[in-house]
Amino acid sequence: MEEPRLGGRRRVLLVGLGTIARTHREALAADASIEIVGGVDPSPAQQDVVPLFRDLDQAFAAGVDPDLVVVATPTRTHLDIVSDVLDRCDALILSEKPLATSVSGIRQLERSHGRDRVASRVRVAHHFAFSPDVEWARAVVQQNPGWGKPSHILCVFNDAYSGLSEEQRASYVSSWVDSGPNQLSVAAAFATGWHVVAHSEEGDRAMTTLDHDGGVTVLASNWLAADTSKQTAIRFDHVGVEVRVDHTSMTALVLSSGRPVEHLGYTGSAGRKAAQYLGLYRALRDDPADHRLSVDLAASIAGLLEGAAHRSAEVLGSWASTAEVQTASALSRG
After folding, report:
1. How would you classify residue 276: left for phi > 0, otherwise alpha for psi between -120 and 50, otherwise beta?
2. Do 59 and 81 touch, CB atoms closer than 8 A?
3. 206-238, pLDDT tens digit by residue?
4. Domains by residue range for the chain, with CATH
5. What is the pTM of this model?
């Protein structure tokens, strides 16, 4: 089946008008060929999208004819909305990540609509994979095949989400479901062949160990943080090379035998998340077959999310918070 391309004037329908839709709109606004032809949300946080529809029935009854449908809704709704849109039109569909938290959900979508049709029409917003720092690090690694496969990947993602409302928590599900797909899409730029070795989580934070071809990947996510901080380190121990990526500042550093040899700075005007989505939409426009957007990658991520969920609750480390550490310190002094 021919891959759809977004050429010429492109009409976009936004489904979901919450927080993440703002970032989509910012990225879409950077392309003069994009026209947002409507927004769908029963209780929109953004009222300035015109026309505004309460549901897909109303939107398509009004004659909306999009080239691209962006699904920016809570995680649990992604598959059902994607399936609904596939029934209604031939538009390309960009779903927020994760497309699903189980492989069976994606396979059911493929059975209902045909695997080729789903592969051709559905893309997934693995936006972290398009961050300038990740793109740079990936290019550096590709330019140095002599480094071989990474021996160790460590992704640590912290978010100041302790004050999330119950509604926001329900939308994000957990630190693992929220951050895991981002971490895995970053790690996928450098390694393949994962399987889950151990996993432990308590909603606000998670730790996961996976074997990958040639080494080990460790993922740590935490909502109990004072501020956002996200980093990835990729080590090639047999050649003494380490690539350190700071996703928060969109910078990176290559160390060889402990000495810096390459350094990436960021001089763009877009903020972190906007820069990621700008890169994502460029790929969607220029190379919609990019694996980072694919349902295949979404299924791999869903399989790892599912595999981690099925692991026995193994303690990978002790959970603590600053308040707990301070209390313990005070007790020891007493």
Report:
1. alpha
2. no
3. 999 999 999 999 999 999 999 999 999 999 999
4. 128-309 (3.30.360.10)
5. 0.88
